[in-house]
What we know:
The protein has helices at 12-22, 37-41, 63-73, 88-96, 109-120, 143-149, 153-162, 168-175, 179-193, 199-208, and strands at 3-8, 28-34, 51-54, 78-83, 101-104. With 214 residues, the chain is α/β, with parallel strands linked by helices. It is elongated and about 55 Å long.
Amino acid sequence: MKIQLILADDHPVVLQGIKAHFSNDERFEIIAMVNNGLELLNSSLLADADIILLDLNMPGLDGLKALNELKDKKIKAKIIVLTNYHSFELVKDSKHRGASAYMVKSDDLQNLADTMLKVLDGKEVFPSFDEKESPDTQFSYFDDFLKKYKLTKREVEIIRLVCQNLRTKDIAERLYLSEFTVHTHRKNIMRKLELSDSTVALYEFALKTNLISS
Length: 214
């Protein structure tokens, strides 16, 4: 019996590229292609999937939030994150939320087939990062950076804590703030940066501006 795949990505070129690559591989069958997290969660074929290939940066419901929902559903499918971001924090976060593997889209598609077989065999496949590449615990602030993005030092601190996979409650306790205050800060951050209310969007900004390690 063929291995049943669901592809979740909002880029048609990516979807069609993966579909074309596996069209002649008799080991796999793509049973559904969806464009965002909500479509994935509502798919009638979700329970039939053996593997879900999940992009992180999708509209409506991003990949990280979808991982949480899929974990709660306790589906049988193994989840492989397939993304553009080579990030220590995103790898760690995806693994924490239940992904079995993490791959960058620029990787060879032949490696994707190998990874799918490995996760079905009960293995986990994640990029390795040298310890010295891991984000440090010290915060560095630059006046020019703060002025450019109209952020406060506290807001930058909260961005980095969010990217460390800390919940609002955890951030509040660490900074001796109320959860409401942290939530307000986060809303202000998203407004100032003109970002959607998406953890992935915040990760992307933090990576581009070197607030977290890539």
